[in-house]
User: Which sequence fits this backbone?
């Protein structure tokens, strides 16, 4: 099996050395660049399995790099873990809204960062049956083809909007989705959803899921996620 490839983007030599050493030691193939422009070139040419991205970069800053990668069909699937000294709530929300998989602030623990990287790499395929599109998380099974949901084998009747929200959360366990991202996912010509009504749908969804409703976590000031196993 080939080693998972990690692209590290940071303009601090000490950080690059620390990450390169720890990632290589834990079985990853590591590439390092020091600017946003080089990050775009490397990501597009090598298609890494994950990008560790600093926000405060010379020239093209990290948020713009994330925005460009997530808008490019060739690279939009690559998980991006933001690693930065900018730890204000507004910065975290901005990064997650652009599609970042996770956000770690400096100073950081290498062990915690490695755990976050493993989790981000795992999310892309956890619980997805490639043949049917069925998603299984905990004892929740979501079948988009049949538009069915079961909890511990028992069927659960959801509205169209509730189903779409649950399917979104279940496809990426542990991934925090902002209210705006949830609205973008479920909005349609015949469906009117606002960021405020998302909270109402969540209350109803949790109630209908019974004990499994406890797996849906509120991330204060950011949005919602479905707890990982």
Assistant:
């Amino acid at each position: 099996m080939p080693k998972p490839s990690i692209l590290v983007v940071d303009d601090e030599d000490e950080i690059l050395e620390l990450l390169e050493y720890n990632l290589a030691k834990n079985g990853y193939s590591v590439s390092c660049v020091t600017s946003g422009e080089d990050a775009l070139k490397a990501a597009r040419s090598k298609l890494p399995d994950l990008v560790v991205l600093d926000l405060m970069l010379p020239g093209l800053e990290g948020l713009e790099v994330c925005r460009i990668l997530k808008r490019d069909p060739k690279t939009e699937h690559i998980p991006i873990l933001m690693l930065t000294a900018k730890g204000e709530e507004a910065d975290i929300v901005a990064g997650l809204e652009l599609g970042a998989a996770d956000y770690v602030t400096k100073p950081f623990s290498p062990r915690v960062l490695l755990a976050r990287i493993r989790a981000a790499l795992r999310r892309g395929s956890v619980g997805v049956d490639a043949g049917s599109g069925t998603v299984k998380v905990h004892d929740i099974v979501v079948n988009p083809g049949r538009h069915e949901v079961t909890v511990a084998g028992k069927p659960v009747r959801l509205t169209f909007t509730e189903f779409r929200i649950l399917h979104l959360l279940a496809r990426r366990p542990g991934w925090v989705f902002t209210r705006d991202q949830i609205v973008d996912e479920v909005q349609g010509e015949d469906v009117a959803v606002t960021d405020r009504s998302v909270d109402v749908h969540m209350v109803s969804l949790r109630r209908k899921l019974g004990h499994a409703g406890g797996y849906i976590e509120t991330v204060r000031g950011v949005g919602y996620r479905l707890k990982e196993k």
About this structure: Residues 3 and 200 are 43 Å apart (CA to CA). The radius of gyration is 19 Å. The chain is about 40% helix and 20% strand. Helices lie at 13-25, 36-46, 62-71, 89-97, 110-123, 160-171, 179-186, 195-209.
